[in-house]
Target: Lasso peptide biosynthesis B2 protein
Amino acid sequence: MALPPPIRLTVAERVRGLAALGAARLVLARTRSRPDSLERALRGYAAGARPAGLPEAERAWKVIITISPRCGGDTQCLIRSVAVALYCRAGGTWPTWRTGMRYPPMQSHAWVEAGGRPVGEDARNIATYTPAFSVAAESTSNTNGA
Model:
């Protein structure tokens, strides 16, 4: 995925973004990146949040990849998606967080959506994945597909 140019961040955005990245690393370490444990943890963070709008979620995505360009790479989708979701949560909202798989060849991916659209991702590419886990704002039922 080609990265967009870095954006100018306010001090508050930089602090919130760094906190979201740090929290994402802690959540992934605590859950050992296991999908079921991660889904359960994220459901707790999503509780009580309003759904994130597309502009807010897109800004969160840009903040995260501006702070950590590495998160914009093809192999960093899990930490990127969790960090974007936590960034939004710090503002009182939650995007829909998803993981999915496609094959052949077997490949997994994690992304966030807002307003029914993938954030920072090519919608045609995302459409090739079958969602396995999904956590939306005020979500109680979170497994899609199977």
